[in-house]
Structure formats: C-alpha cells, structure tokens
Amino acid sequence: QVRLVESGGGLVQPGGSLRLSCAASGIIFRVNVMAWYRQTPGKQRDLVARIGSDGNTYYADSVKGRFTISRDNAKNTVYLQMGSLKPEETGVYYCNVVGANIWGQGTQVTVSS
After folding, report:
1. Disulfide: which of 20, 30, 77, 93 matches 73 by Cβ 3.0-4.6 Å?
2. Tens digits of per-residue pLDDT, 58-109?
3. 20: left (phi over 0), alpha (psi -120 to 50) or beta
4. pLDDT tens, 36-50?
5. Cβ(86)–Cβ(111) below 8 Å
6. 85 to each of 20, 34, 91, how far by Cα in Å?
C-alpha cells in the first residue's frame, strides 16, 4: 500500500522559515519524481516545487530563491525548505508522486503575525 505522510507544518511569522517533510512507503521512491503542492483557501491545488529522480528541480516562479526541494532516497523522504514566508502562502501543503494520483494527507502552514 502506497502511503505519503507529510509533517513539519505549523504557525510561522511572515519572513520566517519552515521545513516540511514527506515520508513515502510502498513505492520504489528513488525512481519517482516527487512534488509539493499548496492549496490555499478557496483555490485550486498549485504546484510549488518538483524534484526528479536525478535530482533536477523545478520551482514555481513565486517561490524561486526562497524554497528548496530536496530528497533523501535512503530515507524515502522528500523535503521542502521554505524561507521568507508570506501570509498569502498560508495553506495546506501536499506531497505527490508525480504521474500518479497519490497524495499525502497534507500539512497546514499558517503564515501570520
């Protein structure tokens, strides 16, 4: 059974940082492209960042230079280091196996003073 479990969300002040983690099980993690999405209230789920099996990365324009996606294949885990967070980035962050309808339960990030 495939399972993705996100963690690391929480309340952070504007300009602050958070590190999200997504632990995967039930898949051959190292061969999969992994992604982080964000769903803000009332809006669709948008791609934030993606990392290939070869380590190549993609970022949404809005987070370039502030967020870093990485992976540890030995731990079957993908990370999202977020910096200089903005209030409009409040939402639920989801981990995804790209190309498959496989999602975690999400982790809430709230950016507020």
Report:
1. 30
2. 999 999 999 999 999 999 999 999 999 999 999 999 999 998 888 989 999 9
3. beta
4. 999 998 889 999 999
5. yes
6. 13, 22, 12
| Cβ 7 vs Cβ 109: under 8 Å | no
Predicted confidence at residue 89, as pLDDT, reads 95
Which letter, b or e, does each residue of 77-98 get, where b requires 16 or more Cβ atoms within 10 Å of its Cβ? Answer: bbbbebeebeeebbbbbbbbbe
The three-state secondary structure class of 42 is: coil
Place of tokens 């791609």: 47
- The dihedral sign for the CA sequence 101, 3, 45, 21: negative
CA angle 66, 91, 102 (to 5 degrees): 95
Q: Which residues of 6-42 are buried (b: 16+ CB within 10 A; e: fewer)?
A: bebbeebeeeeebebbbbbeebebeebbbbbbbeeee
Residues 6+ apart with CB under 8 A from 68: 49, 79, 80, 81
